[in-house]
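Hi there,

I know you've been waiting on this one. I reran it after we fixed the sequence typo, so this is the corrected version. Both the input and the resulting structure follow.
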Amino acid sequence: MPNALIQSDLNALETRLKSLVQSDVAFIELIGEDLLEAGGKRARPQLVFLAAKALGFEGERVVDFAAVIELLHSASLLHDDLIDDADTRRGKAAAFKRYGNVVSVMSGDFLLSTLLGVISEFGNDAARFVKLISQTSRVICEGEVLQFQVAALETYSLDNYFKIITGKTAALAAAATKGAAMLAGRDADTIAALETYGLEYGRAFQIQDDLLDLMSDSDTIGKPVGGDLREGKATLPVLYLLEKGVTEASEILARRASEPSDVGRMRDLVALHGADSASKLEIRRRCENAVRALSVLPVSPARLALEDLAMRETERVI
């Protein structure tokens, strides 16, 4: 549930997004409307609004920047679903399944073009925000390609894993909080601290997602468990097994859990060798890093909400 502190901001965001996805081309507008109606938790805009409030900054430009972040996220989803051959997105058939590859890709590009138009209205700050979004998009793309490369070449390592999850999730969370500090005109140290919060929170979030993908159940996560394993992705608990030299884990990963008992057996190995506990410790460490980064800000309801958001990752089950 969105924090009550920012409900009015989220309402303003929905209105702004609706105006931004309008198009004379019906398929583009339909995809845009689908993304708005599906909604999701607007997790990244929430980071923008809470960070801005914690910095004592509000206004239309914050709403516009939150829209930029959400448009970038939505564009990446349109492209990711096609890359992953995903059947659904937020309970509906994926856009490329309904409208085809070309329409889906170009609609994603439409959203990217739209967000650049929004940034162009930032006046003297426009160049700084173009650079922020450009750098963020680059990291997202690198993370996606690296994930494919690692699975294809089996170059599994903790270093590669953390690069992947930084691109997959943390980079955009960091852009949200860093951008809020930039909008507020804060000094370099404060901007860096808010960026650190976003990076560490985003990493904790993705590690938890990856852990749930293997160790939870399909009713809880809303999809079959072991999806990452079947795609040849070595997430943190599996990497811990590889580092310990657990041969059976390497064999299951190599055949992409193609045997009926493979996912269950990997779960057993993770529990047996304490890789689940080690992953949870890493999640907690990242969450605590995120909270520590916020110490540069005065105590306020918004700062406490950011701290709570991070620490909830230590116990999230979905």
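Quick highlight: Strands lie at 88-89, 92-93.

Best,
R. S.
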